[in-house]
Design goal:
By secondary structure, the chain is mainly β. It folds into two domains: 175 residues, no CATH class; 132 residues, no CATH class. The chain is built from one helix and 29 strands. The strands form two sheets. A 15-stranded parallel sheet has the order 1-3-5-7-9-11-13-15-17-19-21-23-25-27-29, covered by helices on one side. It has a 14-stranded parallel sheet with strand order 2-4-6-8-10-12-14-16-18-20-22-24-26-28, with no helix packed on it. The chain is elongated. The two termini are 34 Å apart.
């Protein structure tokens, strides 16, 4: 799932940006009305302000570069503009501010790249805009803030990449937006915060990947949104906190995977949300806490798998929920605690398999027609 949405976001960004003829020098001549080319370069200069506006203009190319330049401000606005490409690059530049706005604009590509640049702020907004691609890349860059907002915008791709970057904050919001792809990747990056929210947004895919990254916080929320896919993966990452919430959202799929990652906390909540699937997997990971809460949610499936993972705690609560299926597997995992509570209309199926030692299992059923299977082999 992760690679699919990463590829989708990258494809949209590539199609939106690469097709446009970025200029190599300043003030390129326009070959047709509306086909403007603007290039601004600030080299070894501080405190620069750059503002570019395209109103009712299409097929424009904008490239702003700040090299060895600090405390610069860059603003680009595409209003009722189609097929524009905007690239902003900060290299060895700190405390830069970048703001790109696409309003009632379709098929635009926005790329912001911070390399060896710290304490930068990046904001990209797509309002009533469709088919836009947004890419924000922080490489060897610390304490950056990235905010991408898609408002009443469909078929947008958003990719945020923090590599060797610590203390970054990334926020992606899709409001009234459908068929969007969001990918956030933290590689060798610590103490990062990632938030993705889909509100009244359907058929969206959200992927968050923390690789060799510790003490990261990830929050994904689907509100009044249906048929969304969420994937969070912590690989060789310790002390991470992951929360995924589906509120009044049906037909969603949630996957949280901790691979050789310790002391992580994962929470999946479905509230008044039906036909959802939640999977939490701990592989070679110790001292993890996994919570899945299904509140007034029917026909849900919850799976927690601890493979070669010790001292983990798993709690699954089905409150006012019927026709739920719960599976907890502890394979080669010792001293784990598993608690399953089914409180509702009944007709639930609970399976707990312990192929390990020193595990504690509690299953509580309140209702009719419940099936419970507990197996201890070890």
């Amino acid at each position: 799932m992760s690679s699919r949405w990463c590829a989708r976001a990258a494809t949209i960004v590539g199609l939106s940006v690469a097709a446009l003829p970025f200029v190599t020098g300043a003030g390129g001549a326009a070959t047709l009305p509306g086909q403007n080319e603007v290039a601004v370069s600030n080299v070894a200069g501080n405190g620069n302000k750059t503002s570019v506006s395209d109103i009712l203009a299409s097929l424009n190319s904008i490239h702003v570069t700040n090299a060895h330049a600090n405390a610069n401000e860059t603003g680009v606005t595409n209003d009722h503009a189609v097929g524009n490409g905007t690239a902003v690059q900060n290299v060895h530049g700190d405390h830069n501010g970048t703001k790109v706005t696409n309003k009632a604009a379709a098929g635009n590509g926005t790329s912001v790249h911070n390399t060896d640049a710290n304490s930068n702020n990046t904001a990209v907004t797509n309002h009533q805009a469709a088919g836009n691609g947004t890419s924000v890349d922080n490489e060897t860059a610390d304490h950056n803030a990235t905010k991408v907002t898609n408002d009443h915008a469909a078929n947008n791709g958003t990719a945020v990449h923090n590599q060797h970057a610590d203390g970054n904050v990334s926020a992606v919001t899709n409001a009234g937006s459908s068929a969007n792809g969001t990918s956030v990747h933290n590689a060798n990056a610590n103490n990062n915060q990632t938030t993705a929210v889909n509100e009244q947004s359907h058929h969206n895919g959200t992927s968050v990947d923390n690789h060799d990254a510790d003490h990261n916080t990830t929050g994904v929320g689907n509100v009044n949104s249906a048929h969304n896919d969420t994937s969070v993966e912590n690989h060789h990452a310790d002390g991470n906190s992951t929360g995924v919430g589906n509120v009044n959202s049906d037909g969603n799929s949630v996957s949280v995977a901790n691979h050789h990652a310790d002391d992580n906390h994962s929470t999946v909540s479905n509230h008044s949300s039906d036909h959802n699937t939640g999977v939490v997997s701990n592989n070679g990971s110790d001292h993890n806490s996994s919570n899945i809460n299904n509140n007034h949610s029917d026909h849900t499936t919850s799976v927690v798998s601890n493979n070669g993972s010790n001292h983990n705690g798993t709690d699954i609560n089905n409150n006012g929920a019927s026709h739920t299926t719960t599976v907890v597997s502890n394979n080669g995992s010792n001293d784990n605690h598993t608690g399953v509570s089914n409180h509702g209309d009944g007709n639930t199926t609970t399976v707990v398999a312990n192929n390990s030692n020193g595990n504690n299992t509690t299953v509580s059923n309140n209702g009719d027609g419940n099936t419970t299977v507990v197996t201890n082999d070890g």
